Amino acid sequence: MAQFYRPQRGRSKPAEQPIKRNASVSGLDHQGRGIVRESKGVRFIAGALTDELIDFQPQGKWQGKLIQVKQPAPARVTPDCPYYEQCGGCDLQHLALSRQRQHKQQVVSELFAKFAGHDIDCWQAPLTGADWRYRRRLRLACHWDSKRRNFKLGLRQANSKAIVEISDCLISDTALTRLLQPLRKFLPQLDLIAQLGHVELMTTNSCCLLLRLKNPVSAKDHRQLLEFSQNYGVDVWLHCGETAPQPLLAGQELPRYASWQTEVSFQPGDFLQAHGELSPLMVEQALAWLAPGPGDHVLELYAGSGNFSLPIARSGARVTAIEGVPSMVERLTANASRANLSIAAQHADLEQPWQHYDWGTIEFNKVFLDPARAGAAHAISEVAQRQPERVVYVSCAADTLARDARHLFAAGYRLKRAQIVDMFPQTHHIECLTWFERET
Ligand SMILES: C[S@@+](CC[C@H](N)C(=O)[O-])C[C@H]1O[C@@H](n2cnc3c(N)ncnc32)[C@H](O)[C@@H]1O
């Protein structure tokens, strides 16, 4: 039967709204977007700064696209990155670095006031490191168009699946970015190109390339990958299906990094703190606040492969470390034994009640936690019930930190110190270190 094209009703693109001129920006939201107040509410405009006069195109109900900055703020700087307009990554590049840090501190203060009913009066100066070339891990999106034999490798555009084909990324270590062009040429020559999910690059003591695949690679690909690995001095790892990542070369050593007088081995694909220079400084600062020592029993939650656990154990404190990924628990145990440290590393889902676990009834006097962005909604209530004398909390999401802090305040803790750790310069992402102390 013949088929005819019929436009689908109600699915056409909404008509563009007229440009609004000379709007004034009253502040920045928690994602670093300019806020414009209108009679019917607020609009969020990416790229606009506080006290600027701008023209913008309204988009949807709450957003707008910046068309022109008529009167720039004194804090505006010219973004260095040639991909700033397209790439979704460094969305605060147009704001001077010192103001980025002030903004991040203000966001945490506002969220504490809103969600925890608490004003922060104990800020320490931000902990800072390199503001460019700091990233030691780069995840790249890719797309293979088999008909046109066209391969795209790059970073995702803001709010889109489109790939921006960068030839450099100014926040990434050059040990990673030097591989971008060679990979673009090399990967389409392989059979695996049709099943390549994404590509990850990381650099610590060695440089690693991790390929996310559905199936194992052919013998021909194996040979070519080996050649690439030797030519470019990069260890290749393959992550096929549901099995753990495997090195291309059997017996390949795990990569490792230094963390405050200890060494931590990790498997490509594991969590790795983004900023190579700042991570050990953050560990040192967390140790200074936690002040572990002989006689202390520290319960560490969300421990990963031991970035904080090993230094805490080195102080002489007894450490029980909890992590949700079983293979990371194995690596933490191996890292501890290599360093001659005794750590009781346990696997657990910290979203579950602790009564399910053997370690759930142990006694401890200090807690250190470093959860993922989701925070520690359940774990913090378990901590608060047990009333340890001190809690040091590293967060990469200010909203969940403020939500979790509310439990600690309600359980009789006070905030003794807070500090922005500038782990993600040029972006709106916030890392914050906090120290809570039981009142009595
Ligand atoms: C931000 S990372 C911190 C890792 C480590 N502290 C470090 O510095 O490398 C958070 C860790 O929490 C773990 N995690 C996330 N959700 C979890 C859960 N529900 N239960 C236990 N661990 C979890 C992740 O696997 C990850 O290793």
TrEMBL record:
Belongs to the class I-like SAM-binding methyltransferase superfamily. RNA M5U methyltransferase family. SUPFAM superfamilies: S-adenosyl-L-methionine-dependent methyltransferases. It comes from Pseudidiomarina terrestris. This is RsmD family RNA methyltransferase. Pfam families: tRNA_U5-meth_tr (PF05958). InterPro entries: MeTrfase_TrmA_AS (IPR030390), MeTrfase_TrmA_CS (IPR030391), NA-bd_OB-fold (IPR012340), SAM-dependent_MTases_sf (IPR029063), U5_MeTrfase_fam (IPR010280). Keywords: 4Fe-4S, Iron, Iron-sulfur, Metal-binding, Methyltransferase, S-adenosyl-L-methionine, Transferase. Gene3D superfamilies: 2.40.50.1070, Nucleic acid-binding proteins, Vaccinia Virus protein VP39. One of its GO terms (molecular function) is 4 iron, 4 sulfur cluster binding. One of its GO terms (biological process) is rRNA base methylation. Residues 1-32 are annotated as: Disordered. S-adenosyl-L-methionine binds at residues 273, 302, 323, 370. The keyword Transferase applies.
